[in-house]
Amino acid sequence: MNMRKKQEQLFQIILVIATIVMTILRFLMNEKGRVSPDSIRFFRGANVFPVVDNTTTPLGYPISIKFFTLFGFDEFWSSKILGIFAYLFIIFFAWKKKFYYRETIFVGALFSFISIFSYTISEALILPFVFWMIFVARQIIIGEITGLKATLILSASLILLFNIRYNALFFMGGIFLFAIINLKAKYSKNFISAAVIGFTFIIFYKFLFIDTFNKHYVDNFLEIGLKPTSQLLLELLKGLATAFNPFIHMANPEGGFINVGVYGLGAANIALMIFIFLKSGLSETEKFLMILGITGIFCSFFIQYFYSIDQLDYRLLSPFTFPIWLVYFKKIYQFFGRLTYVIPLASISVGLAFTWLSRGNYIENRKKVQHYLKNENLMNGRLDFYIKDEKNLKEIQVAELISTVNANLDTTNKAEDTLKKRVLTMYKVLTKIKIDENKFQ
User: Fold this and answer.
1) Helix axes 342-357, 3-28, angle to 10 degrees
2) Which residue segment(s) compose the domain that 62 sits in?
3) Which residues are CB-neighbours of 177 under 8 A, at least 6 positions away?
4) Burial label, 17 (beta-carbon count in 10 A; 0-12, 13-18, 19+)
5) Is residue 439 part of a domain?
6) What pLDDT score was predicted for residue 224?
7) What distance in Å separates the CA atoms of residue 302 and residue 160, rounded to the nearest whole number?
8) Closest CA to 246 of 362, 324, 163
9) What sign does the dihedral 153-154-158-161 (CA atoms) show?
10) How many distinct structural domains can be found in the chain?
11) Is 265 within the bounds of a domain?
12) Taken in order 30, 33, 39, 44, is the CA torsion positive or negative?
C-alpha cells in the first residue's frame, strides 16, 4: 500500500472518530439532550410497547429504541446509542461492500447529519436503510441481482423503510418514475413490481393497522389548503438552502443579516452542484440516486397541500438529500481529490464551535429532573404535562426534558387536568428546579 493511500485512510479514520465524538457532544452539550415534541411520542411508544399508543408514526423507530432498553438502558440513552449505531452501520456497510465508502464518511461528517444522528428522531434510523435500499437498487441496475429475487429484495427494503417513516412512500414513487423513464431497461420490470408491491402494502397497512388503532387518523391529518403556495415555495427554498449548506443548517428564526449568509451559501452550493452534475455527467446509478432524491423533495413539498407536516428543513429532507450528497461528493472528489476532506473537517469545526457557544448541560438538567420526580413519587407510571399554548417553546421544552427521564409521558391541553397529581405544569416544575438553558434550539 503506497503512502498516499495510507494517508487517506488515516484521514478517514480521523473523520469517523471525530464524527462519533461530535455526535455525543451534540446531545450532551444541549439542555434537553437533543429531543423534540416528536421524541416524547417515540419515548412513550417504546415504553408502552407492545401496547400500540398511536399511529401518527410507524412502529419501526420506537421498537428499535425498545430493543436497546433490553440491555438495561432507558429510552433516552437507547435512542442515542441507536443513532450512533445507525451511523456506524452506514460506514461499515459502505466499507464492506466498497460502495460509496469515501462519500459516506464525507456526508456523515457534515454538521447537519451529525445533528440528525444525535437527535431522538426517526430520520436517524431511516438513513442506514435508505443506504441499503440504494445498494440493492444499484445491484439490480448492474445485473448482480435479477428476476424474482430482485423484486422481492427491493420491495422488502421499501416496506421496511415505510415502517420507519411514512415518507418512504416517496421512495416508491421515485423508483417507479425511474423505471418508467428507463422502461426498456432489463431492471424496469423489477423496479415497477417492487413499487407496486410497496403501494399495495400501504393500502393493507392503512386498513389493517391504522384503522384498527386510530380510525380517525385520516380525518385528523388530511386537510386541504393548509398554506398558500407562496408560503410553501418560500419555505421550500429556505429548507433546500439549509439542507444543502455544508456548514450551517439552521437559520436564525428571528431573521437578521446572518440568514443572508446561511441561505446564500446554501444557494451557492446548490448552483455548484448543478454545474458539476451537468459538466461531468451522471452514470446510470447516479441518475437513479438523483431521481430518488429529487422525487422525494418534490413529493415532500406537494404533500403539504393536504397533509400537515413541519416546515421543510434539513431534517425532514435528509432521507432525500442523502443520495444527492453522495453523488455530489463523488464528483467533487473527482475534481479536487484529497482537498475534498477540507469540507467535512470544516463542517465539524463549525459544528463544534456552534455546539460550544450554544451549550447547555443535559446531564445536570437530567439530575435535577430525576431528583424532582423522585421527591414527587413520579419516577414511574403514566404522567401528563399540561401545555396551554403549543407555540410556547418553554412549556414544550420542560415536557421534553421530563420525558427523557420518565418516558411514559403525554401532553394535555385541558386546564382541568392540572388539578390531578400526575399532571405536571411548567409552573409546578420550575418552582422546584432551575433548568440550564442555552440561547439556541
Assistant:
1) 20
2) 3-357
3) 291, 295
4) exposed
5) no
6) 60
7) 23
8) 324
9) positive
10) 2
11) yes
12) negative
